[in-house]
Amino acid sequence: MTAATGVSGAAERSTTAHVVWASALGTAIEWYDFLIYGTAAALVLNKLFFPSFDPFVGTLAAFSTYAVGFVARPIGGAIIGHYGDRLGRKTMLVATMIAMGLGTFLIGCLPTYSQIGVWAPILLVILRFIQGIGLGGEWSGAVVMVAEHAGNRRGFYGSLVQIGFPVGVAASTGIFGLMTQLPEADFLSWGWRVPFLISILLVGVGFIVRLKLAETPHFKEVVERKEVLAQPVWDVLRRDWRSFLLAVGITVSEVGLAYLLTVFTVVYATTKLGLPRQVILNAVVYAAIVEFATLPLAGWLSDIFGRKALYLAGGVFSVALAFPLFWFLDTKEPVLITLALVVTMTLTHALLFGPKAAFMPELFRTQVRYSGASLGANVAAAISGGFSPLIAAALLAWAGSYWPVSLYIIALSIITIVATLMAPETARNSLRS
What we know:
The chain is mainly α. The chain has a single domain (about 15-420), classed as MFS general substrate transporter like domains (Growth Hormone, Chain: A), CATH 1.20.1250.20. Helices cover about 80% and strands about 0% of the residues. It has helices spanning about 5, 10-15, 15-45, 45-50, 55-85, 90-110, 115, 120-145, 155-160, 165-180, 185-190, 195, 200-210, 215-225, 230-240, 240-270, 275-305, 305-320, 325-330, 335-360, 370-385, 390-400, 405-420. Helix 6 (about 90-110) runs antiparallel to helix 8 (about 120-145). The longest helix has about 30 residues, at about 55-85. The relative contact order is 0.16.
């Protein structure tokens, strides 16, 4: 039975547009949940959960708990990817939303260090770990769901799912920007909790939308042919190890840039440059808003020119802009800072992240696609994403200047360029069965 004839009536009604909409909405909510922690770590968690430390050391400690979420992501990717390849894409997409929403809401309910002592940071780490488990399987499930519905326009439709990231950045940064307008005492007592608590409402909406999704025709075919694997994660490591390593390599620069541009720049601008929080938060929001257009454009271009062309361009621009980004930040001029972030996000992160939603699933067979995409994306995230703000902050403290952070960006970009050159071009091929 072919994919065309094997699709059920429910799957036929679940059009590509509906799948993309549901996946993008859910991904936006998940990214919002995950990213508000990064903004909170840069602005307030060091004061409330690590108050006995020097302010900068407290920031490093807060970023360490931030990194815990990324350590959890490969674990979540392995667990959720396993069941996503065995039980189906839809089932696990619903489960990840519950995990993320619960973890985020409970962070907003946590007592602080002054109230329960050392248990406050311990509970914070536990809930951050739960967040990481959820996100470890969410993004990969969403992009696999779209890729297996989208036909030969996987680059464009997949990039629409990626819009969830700038939506999450703009929403999380924007609401924190709003809360920082409160008097300092109110912000520290209850204002910082609001972004975490309202996530429960967003999760409820996403949960209902995703329940209406139908399973993908590709996974249905695997089930009908009785080709579901008992241990898909092990199969990725045993048979698809080359694709796995390439997936990690092509992702490390993009995921590192994502958190350096949206999290570390906040710390650099507020602590090193002494700028008002609102200046850098506004710049991050504007850069994220521009990605609403540049991400789909990058995905569309990757359908025309190939995934590798976009990735190579993004890698080269990442190298070229690693130093100019900080030159503009150091001007302390709000307009130039905003321009720097907008241009850098557009020419680096957007060119890499837009085609990623198609490139990553295309590297793996249907039987292991969820597991392979999850492991590739999340191992890279653990290596460069979660630790990038922490590494950058430590490099800044060591050198007293941005130059080692720029070299760090260049090193990550070179890894991605080399991996891209070694990867196959997948844009014009059918998904591997």
